[in-house]
Amino acid sequence: MTxxxxxxxxxxxxxxxxxxxxxxxxxxxNVYCEIHPYNSVDEAFISGFAPRAVILSGGPDSVTRDGxxxxxxxxxxxxxxxxxxxxxxxxxxxxxxxTVDSGHGTAEFGRAFVTPQNSLNILEGWFNDGDEQVWxxxxxxxxxxxxxxEVYGTSPNAPYAITADVARNFxxxxxxxxxxxxxxxxxxYENFVKLAGFTGDWTMGAYREQAIAAIREQxxxxxxxxxxxxxxxxxxxxxxxxxxIGDQLTxxxxxxxxxxxxxxxxxxxxxxxxxxxxxxxANEQELFxxxxxxxxxxxxxxxxxxxxxxxxFDKYARPIGAKFLAQGTLYPDVIxxxxxxxxxxxxxxxxxNVGGLPxxxxxxxxxxxxxxxxxxxxxxxxxxxxxxxxxxxxxxPGPGLAIRCPGEIxxxxxEILRKxxxxxxxxxxxxxxxxxxxxxFVAILPVRTVGVMGDGRTYDxxxxxxxxxxxxxxxxxxxxxxxxxxxxxxxxxxxxxxxxNRVTYDITxxxxxxxxxx
Length: 518
Ligand SMILES: Nc1ncnc2c1ncn2[C@@H]1O[C@H](COP(=O)(O)OP(=O)(O)OP(=O)(O)O)[C@@H](O)[C@H]1O
Ligand SMILES: O=c1[nH]c(=O)c2[nH+]cn([C@@H]3O[C@H](COP(=O)(O)O)[C@@H](O)[C@H]3O)c2[nH]1
Ligand SMILES: NC(=O)CC[C@H](N)C(=O)O
Ligand SMILES: [Mg+2]
Fold this sequence. Notes:
This protein is of the alpha/beta class. Helix 5 crosses helix 6 and helix 6 crosses helix 12. The longest helix has 23 residues, at 298-320. The protein has 15 helices and 20 strands.
């Protein structure tokens, strides 16, 4: 969906690991921005995009290397405010006639302190207590600044830590203001967007109206189906679509037999009864569990589920004559699919992903959330009146309990898993921890262990509790439950769930682990 009615900022990505964070900081300031890789922006693109300001990201390459990435030279003649970060600073200096050198012992990785030289508009609110903490990650450094630039801050290994050509509104810094370890970094972005004239017009209220208009324009009178999981993304997408096109929308909720306890009832009640949406409750348990029978390889399981999702959507779309398929694709998914490197990255796991859907089903995609981050989707959900209990839900993967049941899936194991998961989540809620955790679940292990209960011998399954903190699911740490909480939860699970006699807590971060067990 393209919309140019709000002020736009363009982030040119040179491949930094933290480019997404620049976008997040800006969105928090109610500034609309998009990230585009350096090799897909040229003068025509920039003119069409009509940014009010441009930020050049960091990146792994060295401007001293022949063939390394450059910004379109025209960018420097367009009269728009520019901010270069790390590689972005280096490339700006290089293209504007300064010099960048490699090595010579001037690398800085991690925390550094910048000392002020002169006052500068984008540094308002900085240097209140002397030096300012910043986060650096560079091997190269600017050794001569370009004509028109002056120095406003230095660090021990970056004499040109903060530089600017105020007359042209060009700003270039060696450190990363977007990361957490530059504590006042947001202030720098705030000052920058203010001087560029942004009014902070990117709000969820405005977005809601624009998204609805765009959906109506795209869809016309045609029928749309939406894969609705009851998860945050598809729920918000469905409510937004329903507001836009009412009865032209049919949601398909697939019960693949791999859902959590009570989930199907909850989703159906909420959407069919409360929202009066056309909702197909597709009970496809036999199909999914049948095809998965005897399968134990994680990738095989994922591929089977992915394909069956496609088959099922197809089956229900045909009689309706739906020409559009709606899904809850988010901005991080979009960024990842146009990643800077473009190189073949290793497949860790095949997310059940709906990427194969459009070709097979011949339906065009409607993706009203593809400009949003997860926290913005949650804000939009609240704006649309979805209850907090839905908006704040932990993510739940499309393949569901299949990937929390390592090895072969059987109905009895799924039943045990559902019960254990319900007790665990109940414990987390009772202790007021649900909102502090990104995601929590139980995995049933493919191993049975010996126990003693009521003087009798047991030989039952072991399970693992998982709870992680994360911002975006890309990295994660285990949640530091108290021993009391863990002990109480283990006791409850063993007492209340027949079939489990041992409980463990998974304390692996991501990396090296992943969040799910398969
Ligand atoms: N059981 C299901 N029935 C129908 N569609 C589903 C189901 N599970 C997943 N999907 C589809 O796959 C998409 C991706 O799933 P994903 O889990 O990433 O998002 P979500 O379930 O909407 O939100 P959340 O990340 O909060 O779980 C969903 O937006 C939805 O369109
Ligand atoms: O919709 C989804 N389809 C999938 O196939 C899938 N696999 C993992 N996940 C979710 O993604 C996040 C990261 O999970 P991993 O660390 O296990 O890769 C976590 O939030 C996982 O629950 C999935 N979501
Ligand atoms: N983080 C960055 O942008 C690093 C820029 C460049 N690769 C350097 O090492 O200096
Ligand atoms: Mg989900």
